[in-house]
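Please predict the structure of the following assembly.
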Amino acid sequence: MKILIADDSRVMRSIVLRTMRQAGFEGHEYIDAVDGADALAKIGEQTPDLVLSDWNMPNKTGIDLLRDLRASGNNVPFGFVTSEGSDEMRAVAERAGALFVIAKPFTAETFEAALSGVLQ
Amino acid sequence: MLGEDDLHALVDQVWQTLLDESPIRADEPPTETGWTRADIAIAGDWSALVRVSCTPSAAQRLAAAMLELEAGTEADEDEVTDAMGEVANVIGGNIKGCLGGGTLGLPTVTTGMPSTTADSLLRYSVVWRNEPVVIELLHTDPRQLN
């Protein structure tokens, strides 16, 4: 599977990738995006099977990215990896079509639990 | 509302998860100048600034640890800025959750000292790998926040 990781922090993209591998999700192809606008372009070009996105990013936020995708008819499986995991944000994410919200800081077990039904 | 114990627990959890180590609670840090400081604003009914300050060598070690760089390999300036901002972002996001609402800004990283104790609503001074780090929650005037 092809997985796009969108986060304006290269350090956090690296930690997410490392944690995915620690959670047992190896053997997938990973693509980076540096913000929501970059993610939107790369999703159009490279058609990933899953998007893991930060919420709070410059240029286009994660929630705006998800809304733009759904408005254009793109139903790529989408989850947030964000420092803000309040009930309110989880509800907003779910209404917009997100499968899950992983709050930072996270562990490999958090990823395993959130993604086990999404990735084989 | 967030209390001092909550801040300590939250910071300890962030350190443990991002760096695989817990910081040690410390006395007030030395007052040498030229620290690296990451700020992130929480704007809403309750406007605040979360500030993470440490020595440049601690910032370098934070970045190297978060990126799991090999021993002897130094993080570059962009990586240090990125790592400091992300530590502030994760702590700020969790504090925002405890405060109940508002909007989290994007982190800014500059050179500067921690605030004076009187300015801090909450303050947690720690030592990590023999380096002082200070995490603060500052109440701010919303009109000063962009």
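Residues 90 and 101 of chain A are 6 Å apart (CA to CA). DSSP finds five helices and five strands in chain A.
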